[in-house]
Amino acid sequence: MDIGSRLKQARLEAGLSQRQLCGDVITRNMLSQIENGTARPSMDTLTFLAGRLGKGVSYFLEEDTVTSPNQPLMERAGMLWEKRELGELWQCLSGYQAPDAVFDREYYLLKALAALTLAEQTAREGRVPYGLWLLEEAKQSGARTPYYTAALEEQRLLILARLDPDKAMEMGSLDPHLLLRARQALKQGNTRLALRQLDACEDTSDPEFLLLRGDVFFAMGDHLQAAQCYRSAEKAFPDKVIRQLEQCYLAMEDYKMAYHYACLGRKE
Q1: In this model, does residue 8 exceed pLDDT 50?
Q2: Of 72, 44, 61, whose CA–CA distance to 5 is shortest?
Q3: What is the pLDDT of the chain when averaged over all its residues?
Q4: What whole-number distance in Å separates Cα of residue 162 and Cα of residue 197?
Q5: What integer is the mean pLDDT of 214-237?
Q6: What distance lies between CA 87 and its chain's CA centroid?
Q7: 138 closest CA partner among 156, 123, 162
Q8: Would you say 219 and 249 are in contact if contact means Cβ atoms under 8 Å apart?
Q9: pLDDT of the residue at 62
Q10: How many whole angstroms separate alpha carbon 66 and alpha carbon 102?
Q11: Which residues fall within 8 angstroms of residue 41, CB to CB, at 6 or more apart?
């Protein structure tokens, strides 16, 4: 039985509709696709659904009824991951007995996730050697599970760039990834995170960088810095900054400049 079938069976046993199970986290359409086998849930989504259904994550990742000596360990590991008790999780995973046809994919995914999260912490603390070792563990574990996604590898590379700038030079610019993350953070209303992502960019003269930075400052209510960024991006993106510049200058009570951009806006 695959993941989707197990989810549907558990949902029906719990007496829940698809909408009730989804809550505010995923859409009913996505759950329907997962249950029908046309989409696979991310680990975070599966963890959420398992919690709503009162099941361990491992219950849904087992695709047959083969028993495994690792089952108690993996059930405990799943609960530790949900609670983000990373130290205990890492210790728990060290007792895993490989190979295991039932749990190997989940085990290596959990190990990669734990390693990435711990590496993020060590990067903030400046513990470079340990952080680099964790990133190598994440890389090796990720290569052994189909659940390791491109987004997780991107996360690993970004942490690696913080821990070892020389490696970042070998990988090329990470600016496109940072801009994407900044846009996502801004869309979610997290302006501080968006600004931190932008601060890590190399090319601060890129019009897309300047436009997005202007949007972040505008959302923060810093109209002076927003206007400076928008002015620098104006030549490349006139249609995207003119009305924003009008609002910035109105907020700063510079009515002459506000009128100038209002006139330009009417010409569009």
Answers
A1: yes
A2: 61
A3: 86
A4: 12
A5: 95
A6: 21
A7: 156
A8: no
A9: 59
A10: 7
A11: 3, 34, 49
